[in-house]
Amino acid sequence: MTPRIAIVTGAGQGVGRAIAVQLASAGHRVALVGRDSDKLESVAQELAGPSLCISVDLTDPSGVEAAFDTVERTWGPADILVANAGASLAASVVDTTDEQWQHMLDSNLTAPFRCLRRALPSMLDRRWGRVVVIASIVAKRGERQVSAYSASKHGVLGLVRAAADEVARQGVTVNAVCPGYVATPMTDATVRAIAQRGDIEESEAREILAKRQPIGRLVEPDEVASAVLACIDNAAINGQGINIDGGAVQS
Questions:
Q1: What's the predicted TM-score (pTM) here?
Q2: From 149, 191, 224, 243, active-site residue
């Protein structure tokens, strides 16, 4: 497809890195957004084409504005937004503090909302745009120990569906990709938490997560990235939450 300007949040590692690499390989210019400038620079070295590294905190409204302003000053308005940045939390409902609850909402729902709100006007003006939010399989079902995380992901999937219906007739699509357990640093943290709670080895905890997926293994970041690219390439995909979980939740 025509080379476009893309913004990928949470691009310093894991799924965000894989998405950035695949977008660059497809010929797009990629702005890498995240908190850790060293990680962003490392990913930039892997990309096949032009890139920008923008270190900001997206839970701060000024960080969202700074990221988009930098891209627009350098290249022009973004055609593609991949809202991948987020955070996770493992805690029971009764043990979840107000601060933890708010952090999940700020990271996984409010920050993607602000990015979407900032990206849409120029996309609508040009009557072309693609937005993909990385949600989670727990945007579609509840699981123990992740109530705040699940609630934030349910919320962002609702945002995706509502926005998609608003913009469908103006050349813009909005979708979510909903991974299961992916082989990323975020999952590594989950593995450590499970091992600590159950007093087991981390290898055993990782196997527990792998067995929750019918394919018997963790999803690879490139498999999530391929689904994102499909949403970008195919204008008929809109308002969807695409499961990438080895069949754990069947649509």
A1: 0.95
A2: 149
